[in-house]
């Protein structure tokens, strides 16, 4: 069941995308009697058979708890789990012992909030958070601010959905201790220049947290070179199972942080007069982890690598270009976000149509888009809208599916009057 290092559909500079798509069983199904057009990958990605099989194989042949039992199954489970950590580390170009495995970005950012920020911040300190953050990169900072007396400052955006970098750098004054910014916006698709931003923050001694949830599935990543202090990601958006994710930080940063959750697996010795914690990253991994999920995530990383992240990014850019061109032709359709560097996410509204109504009618045509506020209320407040529809693409989508979305919008619109 080993995943080949190069996918058979990749040869020379060419990728047979139809063959890649055939790896995804769910994409073969119908919805409401129509072929499914799945355009909600920013929400969660679909899984290739290689990932589903890896999870299935674990439960059928290797299931045991990790890091506890000396029997054969226990060793196999531990080795497979740790192999996934190594694979993910290689994928991100970081060291395995600098990668905390956790349930996803939400947990990863909360870990930073409770273990790094809470013991350090105090009244008079400030946290800068960008306007385009997902709630997972806003609410934990609000909780820290409430408990420490620190304040939150908002890094604003331009109308095209790019960060106002001049204003951001001017905001990085001495009371700012932490800057939280997304690598790629889940609503606008904006790709932020995180390397430059982290460099500016570092010059001022400000700790940086980058939310990589929407970057890791879509572009080649070299986390070590970004220069951030923390990088969070979630596995289910990158072809892996739900309930998997990771937090990267330098070893010395992790070593200096107290554990966040206590329990088994995260200790060396427990006595009633004091407990010796395990080394990082294990001291942050209390309790039985989502072992099968991480084995699936290891397979997902192998799978994405076998296609090549540069190929994936290029493919998604062609889908974005096609969708932007075709959607822009629709009268009364407004696209939110036109950053110069943009990932394959298009949020839009149609004049006179409520986004939920539109998404419901699109669903009847088999087209799955998300509608609502996309866990980004402050961003929608900036644009003065209550909701948008969001079509988000992955490499397994096709240009015909873009056309199907456009046709379904025209049909829905007629129905909406
Ligand atoms: N950050 C961004 C930019 C996201 O798009 C998401 C998921 O939608 C999250 C954070 C939260 O990820 P999870 O729910 O997997 O923890």
TrEMBL record:
GO biological process, one term: cysteine metabolic process
Keyword field: Pyridoxal phosphate, Transferase
Domain Aminotransferase class V: 37-405
Primary enzyme class: transferase
EC number: 2.8.1.7
Pfam family for this entry, one: Aminotran_5
UniProt GO MF annotations: cysteine desulfurase activity; pyridoxal phosphate binding
Entry-linked InterPro entries: Aminotrans_V_dom (IPR000192), Aminotrans_V_PyrdxlP_BS (IPR020578), Cys_dSase_SufS (IPR010970), Cysteine_dSase (IPR016454), PyrdxlP-dep_Trfase (IPR015424), PyrdxlP-dep_Trfase_major (IPR015421), PyrdxlP-dep_Trfase_small (IPR015422)
SUPFAM superfamilies for this protein: PLP-dependent transferases (SSF53383)
Coiled coil residues, start to end: none
Cofactor(s) recorded in Swiss-Prot or TrEMBL: pyridoxal 5'-phosphate
Reactions catalysed according to its record: (sulfur carrier)-H + L-cysteine = (sulfur carrier)-SH + L-alanine
Top-level division of the source organism's lineage: Bacteria
Keyword Aminoacyl-tRNA synthetase: no
Similarity annotation: Belongs to the class-V pyridoxal-phosphate-dependent aminotransferase family. Csd subfamily.
Function, in words: Catalyzes the removal of elemental sulfur and selenium atoms from L-cysteine, L-cystine, L-selenocysteine, and L-selenocystine to produce L-alanine.
Matching NCBIfam families: sufS
Protein name from the UniProt record: Cysteine desulfurase
Organism annotation: Lysobacter daejeonensis GH1-9
